[in-house]
Amino acid sequence: MNGYDSNSGSAIVQHGQxxxxxxxxxxxxxxxxPNRQTEVNRVLMEAWSWLQGGGFLVRDAHQPGDxxxxxxxxxxxxxxxxxxxxxxxxxxxxxxxxELIAAKVYPAxxxxxxDTAVFQAFREIEIAARQAGKFDADLVGKDLxxxxxxxxxxxxxxxxxxxxxxxxxxxxxxGMMFLFMGAIGLYKNPQSHRNVPTQSIDAAEVIxxxxxxxxxxxxxxxxxxx
Length: 226
Description:
mainly alpha, 2 domains, 4-stranded antiparallel sheet, 10 helices, 4 strands, disordered N terminus
């Protein structure tokens, strides 16, 4: 917060602590936006709630009233680089990711190696598809996806790919095949690295997409046989 100084003797900041009551009371007595002060106050209250919920502002249980101090996390984030590092896990919550992505891709994302993280995510899809369908090692990339998700031919029983969901209409089977082929072609193949996102938010979105595809593969994996 602006004006946070342990030596300050203001009504809002005293001895390194911030008074929530005095902060908002001061806004009401000296409104900067007279015609919209209620709206402004509510926005600031939301921000205060977010800071408190995120563990940045902590209520001092030893003080009467609503006095808060900056947590160790908040003090650490005073530096721009530290704040950028804090934002990365929030862009890509590990708990929402497929276990393979969380284990093998997430660390690279946190290090800022976005091209490596995206490539690794789609490499895991290729490996998972090959293992699920027991395909040869020399079948790779889009050709692997085309074979694994080959749509069924109504005139040829057993013509569907080993990972094809034959309960779907043929157009949707085709759509799934093209989805996996396109994803591998765009994000995994070395020739397409020029399309790999280099910004954290873009990389996070692509990695979440890869996680979704891996979960689809899990559902389509043929049952294990003895």
